[in-house]
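Reply to dn_fold:

You asked what the input looked like. This is it:
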Amino acid sequence: MRASKALTGLRDYRLLEWSEDDGCAITWKLAQGVHMTNLALMFGRARTGQA
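and this is what came back:
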C-alpha cells in the first residue's frame, strides 16, 4: 500500500510527516492532539477500501 493512498482519508488529521519503509511500514510523526486510535481506524478503513 502506498502512503499517498493511505493519506487520502486523513485530511482531517494534522500529520507532520510520514515515511514509507522497505516493508511498506509507515512511520508517522503525529501532531499534538492526534490520537493513534483514531488514526488506526482511518488507516484500516483506507485499507479496506483498496481490498
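The CA atoms of residues 18 and 28 lie 5 Å apart.
Hope that clears it up.
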